[in-house]
Amino acid sequence: MSKIPYPTPKEVNKWLQKWKKSKNYTEQEETVKLVFSTFPENEKIEHILAKISILNDFYSLHIFGTHTVAKQVQNKHIDAPLKRGDKNIVNKITPIRMGKEKKIRKMYSFASKYCSHHQPEHYPIYDYFVEKMLVHWKENSDFGKFHNFTNQYLKDYSKFKKIIDKFIKYFNLERYTYKEIDVYLWQAGKKYFQKKYPKKNQKKL
Fold it and tell me: What is the pLDDT of residue 196?
């Protein structure tokens, strides 16, 4: 892995400009905003389905059973706490019962994205690449000396948000929104921490 540049405003700006030049990302993002602004409430199943479906496609969330997820989000009655920026809502809609066995699947990344697209000023996004970047700077800068945390802390949304806020303050990135910080962390994380997938068995049967 090549050396990761220090998270300065200059570095963040570099990734923001890269994002803006990618129509694939920006046009999809504008489409997501359109859907969420058209259906801001979460009481009608059709509205929730539309929002989950577009997130599933844009972010490749691999949600197999969008109606099941939508129904459980609907049953949580999240509109009032969402509007006041209640951090507990993310953890509340994370566990989803799936399949005939009703096994709980923790859909934490989805939950953070769903809340973020309703209230981006209150809800930073958690995902694999964001986690990798935060852990990297915990282990490779003085940030970790002052703000130590475990990977498990990042899976609790209230703690995750505090860590993001501390990261922003420590590296003097207060001029950026949560969304802009996410754009930076996600793109950089995708470059420096590419997921490794097992090779498919090429043997012909």
Answer: 67
> CB–CB of 8/24 below 8 Å?
no
Q: At which of 118, 133, 154 does a domain end?
A: 118
Which residue's entry shows tokens 């700077």? 137
Whether 46 and 99 map to the same domain: the answer is yes
Q: What whole-number distance in Å separates Cα of residue 56 and Cα of residue 75?
A: 20
What type of residue sits at position 89? I
3-state helix, strand, coil in the chain (%, to 5): 60, 5, 35
* 97 and 65 fall within a common domain: yes
- Examine the fold and report which residue of 93, 118, 143 is the final residue of a domain before the chain moves on: 118
Q: pLDDT tier at 195 (50, 70, 90 boundaries)?
A: confident
Distance CA 191, CA 174 (A): 24
Q: Each residue of 128-185: pLDDT tens digit?
A: 999 999 999 999 999 999 999 999 999 999 999 999 999 999 999 999 999 999 999 9
Structure tokens at 14: 């570099």
Beta-strand (E) ranges in 3-155?
95-98, 103-106
Number of domains in the chain: 2
Per-residue model confidence (pLDDT) at position 5: 96
Residues 6+ apart with CB under 8 A from 89: 76, 78, 81, 82, 111, 115
Residue 174 lies in a domain: yes
Q: Is the pTM higher than 0.85? A: yes
Q: Which residue segment(s) compose the domain that 93 sits in?
A: 39-118
